[in-house]
């Protein structure tokens, strides 16, 4: 079964460490749609998503867009 994640966070690379972006809204977890996240601009050469899946379930990302 594929389920939406319980939660997720977006991080940006700052030097040798990862920092959570400063979100300007909530992290969405709706199924079968884009879940957008607005955040304060950052200068970075790396982004990553950390996902907490629902217990006993699997999940995946179909598409990821960064503007």
Describe this structure in words.
With 67 residues, this protein is mostly beta strands. The chain is globular. It starts with 6 loop residues before the first strand and ends in a 15-residue tail after the last strand. The mean pLDDT is 92. The relative contact order is 0.38. The chain has a domain of 46 residues. It contains no helices and three strands.
Highlighted features:
single chain, 67 residues, mainly beta, 3-stranded antiparallel sheet, 3 strands, 27% strand, globular
In short, what is this structure?
The protein contains no helices and three strands. The chain has strands at residues 7-14, 17-20, 47-52.
Query: Roughly what percent helix?
Result: under 10%
What is the element string, with H for helices and E for strands?
Answer: EEE
Number of strand segments: 3
What percent of residues are in strands?
25-35%
- Average pLDDT for all residues: 92
Runs with pLDDT <50, length 5+? none
Q: C-alpha Rg, in Å?
A: 13 Å
Distance linking N and C termini: 31 Å
- The global form is globular
The number of helices is: 0
Helix vs. strand class:
mainly beta
User: Strand order across the biggest sheet?
Assistant: 2-1-3
How can the largest sheet be summarized? 3 strands, antiparallel
């Amino acid at each position: 079964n594929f389920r939406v994640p319980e939660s997720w966070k977006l991080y940006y690379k700052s030097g040798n460490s990862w920092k959570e972006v400063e979100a300007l809204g909530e992290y969405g977890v709706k199924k079968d749609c884009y879940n957008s996240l607005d955040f304060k601009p950052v200068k970075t050469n790396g982004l990553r998503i950390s996902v907490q899946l629902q217990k006993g379930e699997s999940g995946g990302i179909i598409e990821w867009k960064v503007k």
